[in-house]
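Late entry, written up from scratch paper. The run itself happened at the end of the previous shift, but nothing got recorded in the book at the time, so transcribing now.
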Amino acid sequence: MATRSTIMDTNSFRAEHADGLDAATRQLTDKRSKVLGESYRLFYRKPVHLVRGEGQYLWDAAGNKYLDVYNNVASIGHCHPAVIEAVNQQMKMLNTHTRYLHERILDYTEELLATTPDAIDRAMYMCTGSEANDLAIRVARAFSGGTGIIVSQEAYHGTSDLTSGVSPALGSGQPLAATTRLVSPPDAYRVNTPDLGEWFANEIQKQIDDMKAHGIKFAGFLADSIFSSDGVLPNPRGFLQKAVDVVHANGGIFIADEVQPGFGRTGDAFWGFARHGVVPDVVTTGKPMGNGIPVSGLLAKSHVLAAFSDDIPYFNTFGGNPVAMAAAQAVLTVIKEEGLQEHSRVVGAKLLAELQKLMDRHESIGDVRGAGLFIGFELVQDRESKTPNKALALDLTEKLRDHHVLTSVAGPYGNVLKLRPPLAFQESDIDWLVGALDKSLTELGR
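Output as recorded:
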């Protein structure tokens, strides 16, 4: 029997939905299946045919306007003019690999490293977050001499052979590596403990001990600091420190996957890990750093990176190319000049407060939590038992789509709406989102 994965098959179009489609949409889904194969997935029982984007908004082929509350790759907003101009100008001059000298990669790197703790003083570039995390695992293994990697229970870190082996969110059809161990997520809503940091550190130690019992040497802990695939778990601030201490005490390194929480999204800090006051050994980034242009990075402490780079040359053909660096530079400039980190903090706090008010009207909302413009909206059967309500979450995403709001679900139970709009999201958009949620839950009788 075919298995279904968590993040790929949740909130997805399936063959049984085809009969309900209009002719034009049906033609596109049939053609897509024929030419792209069966691994690809579409969102929604009635897929959305998008043709244009601007800022926090998207338009479909019929001209309907949608509020995008999901796409973090277009981090500063769809089709941002600063990125378009930067890429266009650089494309007119040169685009080639990094084995020739060029100022853009050096200028950008200096500016990027200025946002990190002083100990993080080296950068390397790739094209995707998967590649960055793949290299980070190789660095961890070179530095530690071990192979064992610990990730959270529902983590997603990429699609390469190494990263899919540490991405349980891809589901049971994708086997984990024998050297991977899973740690229970630090879920303050569901874990009953007076000290979440101590509890989480102990969970990591248990997995390190299990590795040792099976003859596996520990290499590192790889985590997205807001645990987005685990259901968006941002708090309490600072709880990661004890876990990082345990990692270091056992000879491993901490890799902060900042593809989603980085670049000002959480509002509290430029980097997600900085909310917890920790200094990672390696930081990885992905396409949000270029607003969707294929660019990613690995930032590291020089002595950690040296264990790999002193012995192994690394070359990623177009990683760090001038066009990608132009896009990344434009994003960094916009974040600073438009004050998007502070914007995320202020607007995100207002959005969170309005979403929490919905709990007074709808008993099905178990918890609303977040940092900046990164919010988890958890749905339950009832608040006393906290029993996850995946069916409601999926029905709610469909209702929101009908109200022209786009998002999706996360978490091990598939019952948490991941509200993660481009940073162009404005205070004036809050009413649309909160109103759509209110109407949709009312229509669903919940």
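The chain has two domains: 81-337, 340-402+409-443.
(Scratch paper discarded after transcription.)
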